[in-house]
Specification:
Layout lengths: L6 H10 L5 E2 L12 E2 L13 H6 L2 H17 L8 H4 L2 E6 L5 H14 L8 H5 L3 H10 L5 E2 L7 H14 L5 E8 L4 H10 L28 E8 L1 H6 L7 E9 L12 H14 L8 E3 L6 H15 L7 E3 L2 H4 L6 H15 L1 E2 L22 E2 L4 E8 L3 E8 L4
Parallel strand pairs: 3-4, 3-5, 8-9, 8-12
Antiparallel strand pairs: 1-2, 5-6, 7-13, 10-11, 12-13
Helix pairs in contact: 3-7, 8-14, 11-12
């Protein structure tokens, strides 16, 4: 993540309100209207995968492999000790928004400069959005379902829905679940800046991402990856694991409205919230913390606020809400897993990360967004939001484990 290359560092910095937005270092952005992003720094892919494979693959795969290895190590699962039949029941759901977009860009440059014979034979696997999931399965010989969905900024919230279905239908005992994204390339930054989606606070990068603030001016593009190990409770207890949190339900809806803007009444988002609560079997007032999508754009933050008010009724004014994007920027296909990790951490440690930079609240965004400072609180049940371009809405509900 832009504020830490492992979960303990990410979590401690998230709680401390540390922001990861800086001037772009991965390419020369001096001529760009937007020159800031939330990049993952000090990252060596060869620490996590074979050097030859690292050269052939793309950054979203590098980041996803590192996150997957950390998750498996933390879980204590020994896939090598499993039988072939047991590995048949281990799946991977690893989602992304754009996949290896730099392979397309680099391959086009090589083609135009040198001709078709010089284009890498590995360009297609490297750009494939599904290759991150496939390489994780190859790493441990996991022969259950391997899935990738592309659903813009909602996609790694949706990953939890697919993992939950695979376990509840009995197809899998274990699913590596998450998302990865590496969109900070010149084309991506330029296109989103031209759309008017990005903050232009080049002179103050650390304060650029300002969800729910009255002076917000767009989101900060970020990169990163996260993976969690989801398994049936019976499987976890049989191997002596200590579960951190439970996935208990969720819902998906569509706005069917616009390619980038949310439907302004928030109807699609509020239906996702309401349906998720119903599917999880919890009442609105049982939610202790909402990990908001909270992008720092004028339309999204206001629409999400309206939707929360509709879905949660009187409880909307009482529930704690915060946005990790205030610190890590918008990770697109990895945004949902970053938010889920915030919610899981809150359940584990009974502390709610803050919304950074919220010193001038928008009067129309008038809920409890846990401004500036983390809050100790009783956190048993958490809702995680992810809303994507094209009106794709996803909500997943997590709660503390009752064994």
């Amino acid at each position: 993540m832009p504020i830490g290359n492992d979960f303990p560092t990410y979590w401690s910095n998230l709680v401390a309100g540390v922001t990861g937005t800086r001037l772009i270092q991965s390419f020369d952005a001096s001529a760009f209207e937007v020159r800031i992003a939330a990049e993952v720094l000090d990252f060596d892919p060869t620490a996590h995968m074979d050097a030859k494979m690292a050269r052939r693959m793309t950054r979203f795969i590098h980041l996803g492999m590192a996150a997957g290895k950390e998750a498996v190590a933390h879980s204590g699962i020994d896939f090598a000790a499993m039988t072939e039949d047991q590995r048949d029941r281990v799946g991977v759901v690893m989602n992304t928004g754009g996949g290896g977009i730099e392979a397309i860009i680099d391959g086009t440059h090589v083609h135009d400069a040198k001709g078709p014979r010089f284009v890498s034979a590995f360009a297609v696997p490297a750009l494939s959005g599904s290759m991150g999931a496939a390489l994780l399965s190859m790493e441990w010989g996991l022969t259950g379902p391997v899935m990738t969905q592309v659903a813009a900024c909602a996609t790694s919230v949706i990953a939890f829905h697919d993992a939950l279905r695979l376990i509840r239908t009995g197809e899998c005992d274990v699913v590596l679940t998450g998302g990865s994204e590496a969109p900070i390339v010149p084309m991506g930054v330029a296109a989103l800046a031209n759309m008017g989606a990005l903050s232009k606070r080049n002179d103050s990068p650390e304060t650029a991402s300002r969800p729910f603030a009255g002076d917000r001016d767009g989101f900060v593009l970020g990169e990163g990856a996260g993976v969690v190990v989801i398994e049936s409770l019976a499987h976890a207890l049989e191997r002596g694991a200590t579960p951190i949190a439970e996935v208990i339900g969720g819902a998906l809806t569509a706005d069917a409205f616009h390619i980038s803007a949310p439907e302004p009444t928030g109807r699609g988002q509020s239906r996702a919230m309401t349906n998720a609560l119903r599917h999880a079997g919890v009442a609105p007032d049982e939610i202790d913390y909402i990990v908001a999508h909270g992008t720092s754009t004028a339309l999204n933050d206001l629409t999400e606020t309206r939707a929360i008010k509709v879905a949660y009724g009187a409880h909307a004014k009482k529930v704690a809400i915060s946005s990790p994007k205030s610190m890590i920027g918008h990770l697109v296909g990895a945004a949902g897993i970053a938010s889920a990790l915030a919610g899981i951490g809150a359940i584990r440690d009974q502390v709610i990360p803050p919304t950074a930079n919220l010193d001038t609240p928008d009067p129309e965004c008038d809920l409890d967004y846990v401004p500036l400072t983390a809050r100790k609180a009783k956190v048993d049940t958490v809702a995680v939001h992810g809303f994507g371009f094209g009106g794709q809405n996803a909500v997943t509900i997590f709660r503390a484990v009752e064994t």
